[in-house]
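Dear support,

Our group has been running a series of protein-ligand predictions, and this particular one with flavin-adenine dinucleotide is the one our PI (initials K.S.) wants archived with full inputs and outputs. We had some confusion internally about which version of the output was final, so please treat the block below as the authoritative record. The input we submitted was:
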Amino acid sequence: MVEARRTDDRPPALIWLRDDLRLDDNPALAAAAADGRLAALYVLDDSGKSGRPLGGAARWWLHNSLTSLRAQLEEIGVPLILKRGTPVVIVPQVVEDLGATSVHWTRRYYGWSKPMDASIKQSLIARGIKVESHKGSVLTEPWEIKTGSGGAFKVFTPFKRAAIPSCDAWASLAASIPKVTGFSGNTVASETLADWNLRPKEPDWSAGLADLWTPGEVGAAAKLNAFLANGIAGYKENRNVPSLIGTSRLSPHLRFGEISIRRVWNAVRAKMASTPEIKEHGETFLSELVWREFSTQLVYHFEDFPDQSWKPNFRSFPWISDSRALKAWQKGRTGYPIVDAGMRELYATGWMHNRVRMIVGSFLVKHLLQDWRHGEAWFWDTLVDADIANNAAGWQWVAGSGADAAPFFRIFNPMTQAETFDPKGQYVRHWVPEIARLPNSLIHRPFDAPAPILQSLGITLGETYPRPIIDHATGRARALEALTSIKGMSAGESV
Ligand code: FAD
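Confirmed final output from the archive:
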């Protein structure tokens, strides 16, 4: 996918890589390679000035993704310069040390990134450097789609209607295939990944992650191919069944930009054209990709969306402070098997099934009345796909405080959710082995099991498996009561 030039004595051009860790269909990288001999830069900023520092699982992913990218770049003679610090200082410094005459990057859409990128751009242009930012991580930039009155969409369905033609239009443009010569001249000293200590040590929960994930461009392409071959045909139904590999598991690859969203979109469209019987499944999958676009436009237009409830009345919601409950949820010890299975899957794999994300989220904010930001923060630390926009949008959807969110009074019943989506209990048995021998009728409600059954299976509630941290009916009633205390809200039906 990358072509090499033969002879080249042009000055160096820099690609500043951020959330676009790929060579293929990376318009910023292709443009930099067209401008000069290519050098690549990645800046790690743990100061919080470049947005929230990465969580533990994402740091593990980054380490492996950069390792893979560096090997790819080395093959084509391009140096990857690693620097830790503030980009406002580092990028101009590297440009100067390298003698680069142009700099390119892929645009990001966060409140903190807009002024930072603008200020770096200005300072480089003032020194006579060519600077270009490029679209490369979304199908529709947040300003491309507007409501009839010119504002941001706050409801998904009309957004999707407006977005799909725009996604198709971007996807129909030719992908960027870079023609590269590496810059082998006076390269700038790079730090090493070992210096960065991105892999967890205490506790090193990441030990099993390497068996599950292949961070990097090759792993991303393999995930897409596997999904097209085996997953997409049943996606519409299977996407809700946590015991199956029924979804693409592309989320961490998309988060780090290891695969172009345009490639994913086009591959699914092509599959739909060649296999008309999967059309409905393909439409559902593309719709999920549009949710990603929707989340991005939300954080772009509402800059504090990741940090506070989007609906103002939720800012005075009477969350309770209960560190014991929060810890039990984090550790997968709530006494509700489907919740515990999800939280254990998350910790062991860095990923959780979407249906289960909704169930554990609802349980935390409604049954346990914990501020959604506690859940968002734990996911931020433990998900390999932790993404500012999708994570905040997911949590605010669950809490009822976001744009086009599930109403707060829709309180998921963990048992009926589990019985619907894990009817034979395979998912729960895998992650909560201490109750695995319970029959299907009791696997999602061990607290209803008659004492002789529990005894015969060696299960002692409160010892070998927790009793429910809160009774479902009590938790539900308490949540609805809390809801009535905020302005403009009333309790309705729960499901
Ligand atoms: P697939 O079903 O194969 O979907 C393909 C892609 O579409 C995903 O990789 C993702 O990029 C996008 N997508 C799918 N569902 C959504 C959605 N609801 N919102 C936005 N984009 C979506 N997703 C993240 O990428 N990062 C997060 O930090 C994140 N946090 C979440 C927190 C909560 C509380 C909830 C309810 C959802 C969250 N999601 C997040 C959305 C969703 O759960 C994941 O994108 C999905 O489970 C990833 O698995 P997949 O790649 O197999 O998805």
